[in-house]
Amino acid sequence: MFTFDIDGGGDSAALYRDLGQALDALTADEPDAIANMANAAALLWEYLPDLNWAGFYRVDGARPDELVLGPFQGKAACIRIPFGKGVCGAAAATGTTQRVDDVHAFPGHIACDAASAAELVVPIMVDGRLIGVLDLDSPRAGRFDAADQAGCEALMAMLGPRIAG
Ligand code: SME
């Protein structure tokens, strides 16, 4: 069992700093990409409030123009997402984080869970190559702010080399 001292006391910077330390401790010595993605999804799911989905879509070398579902927490989700489709596909196609306050206003949004209202998708780059995306969904519109984006981008910068396989 792992126990973490993660609180933040309402301070996003402190919360993401603590999450970074926990994620570092969980993944630093483990070479298995699936294990590291699984623990990252569990950590974010447990400590970030108001989520209804947290997990990864990966780039599979055999089909390099689409994302395939990776480790996650939440409801069963769509398995493959072509680059350019939906919020995850937009992040993959552009290589830029997509922070969406209201997914219903996002063209092509893929509704895996009808409860989702806001979404944050962070592309994960390693040596200039896209290896996947982190996808967080929330039932609360406007749930993700700039601090969440910066925090999750920093977490993925650390995690990327540890899930590159
Ligand atoms: N809503 C996403 C699809 C993935 S699920 O939310 C888990 C999208 O539009 O890319």
Automatic annotation (TrEMBL):
Domain GAF per the UniProt entry, residue ranges: 52-158
A Gene Ontology cellular-component term: cytosol
Record-level Gene Ontology MF annotations: L-methionine-(R)-S-oxide reductase activity
Family: Belongs to the free Met sulfoxide reductase family.
Record-given protein name: GAF domain-containing protein
Organism: Sphingomonas prati
